[in-house]
């Protein structure tokens, strides 16, 4: 058989949604590489992307439905698995109501075909599902209050910026296809500030790194605003015509003097001045916000305070401007069966995602009788894992769909295998950054006859006699989902399969200065916020440092070579904990020493390493390590942000103990 090449797309929960080429020989994928023809990928993918091949044929992949029997896993047939699940679902619904099933999901696979999990539970009558987010919730809601929506400039437009502030994002590790545009902007004479409490790989790309005390970004932004207002560096015209609530906001920021801001943020006041001067004078200026600085109790207001700088200086709706956080460009035009299924929900119940454990334990009526988990690994990724395990143990029936036997799958009663992207036909897009919709062709048939989620839920619905569930082929499902794109942009389904689609006239959001807020203006003052019981204007909320013994703040950002927990699967070592020399000395410990890191919620062992550029009393461990190594979320609290119910992972205080 001749060699064949197909184009597919990386489905990982990443900013970039890369396009890739798979080479298939004699029914086996033999090589995968970056797609040179894709405008964003440009032939280059990261290590995680390349791992799709290894993971496809990995000997530890789950290839059969499995059932726990006397604490051991036994392989069962699909018929047995589907029979058991459907019987349980019917009984639970009859006795307790459909909300006695809690469907936990995340974005472990970013393709359209696997959004059918939500659709299934809607037709079931409505399960218990989350509000809020483990990921980006505070920022998403903050920008909705300010702008009315979540939009970003196209990557190409960044090259027009003269001043760029990367605010708590680490593109060198998490968003690698942004890097070439940053480099280009710099070559064009642009100046790039990076604001981050720790030294990351992005430091090398930036023109300058400004260290900030964690969770004080709101104070910095308000301090910059006060300076800009006092020096009359504001854009009067923009404020007069397109901003609501300037007066109230101006009153509030008066307290953020340079002295106060310096004291609060740990940044020299001359530097704050320079930042404010450059951002407002050396225009156009853009801000790229990451998700790190909103994993705090004050995360939402911090983002609102940063957004406000764009409005004050008129750096919105212009080439080279913008406050970029996420990019729900394609998502806005996705419709179809999943949307339609929402009308079939009779008994939806919600809980705040961060509070999963509390909710399970105190669900009330009906209690949680089944946990159904898709596209996520909550027993590694949610905060306060000890409490979450306790909650899991209280639920009689747990089902997990995954590719590998994760720490979450191990706690299940039934585990169903998931297909790899190379075994699926799908459409992939990201709502974080990439403005493209990628078609992903199937490279090979699923190994061992694995039934992918699209068919699995269809079979389950049939078995349960859910007649309304759309019994349609996948292509029809895609066509219905993509109909708004095809109609609005006059493109055919074949076009979407063969070309790389984007919406060109959306390169610069808010060009018309018509915002999707209730007033139609940019809202420094938001009545919607007020109604929700939060401050109508962005404020700085000082978060209390936990005192006494637990005086080290733990930050747990994302690791370059793993997408959350996924690529830590075969890691046997214990985590590395990064500290500076002062912290080492103060705690009377040494480099390379194995120590115990303890918080009020749990403990783990880790090996000490020096990171010279980390602040005093800050410790850093990457998130994603499995239980066998030591998961950081054994340490984190299940606290929530001020806006958007975001998990405040970094409000985590620890101590170091010698072992
Ligand atoms: N390699 C890789 N790439 C990924 C992921 C991954 O797991 N691995 N995950 C993907 C997902 S789901 C997401 S949400 C994104 C996240 O993408 P990013 O936002 O880039 O990454 P984070 O690690 O969340 O945090 C970014 C930075 O915030 C900094 N930070 C922490 N606290 C503060 C603070 O108080 N102020 C400021 N200014 N900065 C602070 C951290 O030090 C870190 O460098 O990445 C995506 N891409
Ligand atoms: N301490 C700390 N914790 C954090 C964060 C942090 O910064 N610090 N970041 C948070 C963020 S930003 C996020 S987004 C969350 C992410 O949390 P999760 O999404 O739970 O993280 P992953 O480890 O990527 O888990 C995804 C799982 O989906 C599986 N999977 C892959 N493909 C498929 C498929 O086709 N079908 C099914 N059913 N499963 C599949 C993978 O094998 C993997 O086990 O973690 C959060 N947790
Ligand atoms: S993880 Fe992100 S950067 Fe890496 S291949 Fe996938 S989409 Fe591209
Ligand atoms: Mo995320």
UniProtKB/TrEMBL annotation:
Domain 4Fe-4S Mo/W bis-MGD-type: 3-60
InterPro entries hit by this protein: Asp_de-COase-like_dom_sf, MoPterin_dinucl-bd_dom, Mopterin_OxRdtase, Mopterin_OxRdtase_4Fe-4S_dom, Mopterin_OxRdtase_prok_CS, Prok_Mopterin_Oxidored
A GO molecular-function annotation: molybdopterin cofactor binding
Cofactor requirements of the protein: Mo-bis(molybdopterin guanine dinucleotide)
Keywords attached to this entry: Iron, Iron-sulfur, Metal-binding, Molybdenum, Oxidoreductase
One of the Pfam families matching this protein, by short name: Molybdop_Fe4S4
Family according to the record: Belongs to the prokaryotic molybdopterin-containing oxidoreductase family.
Name of the featured protein: Anaerobic selenocysteine-containing dehydrogenase
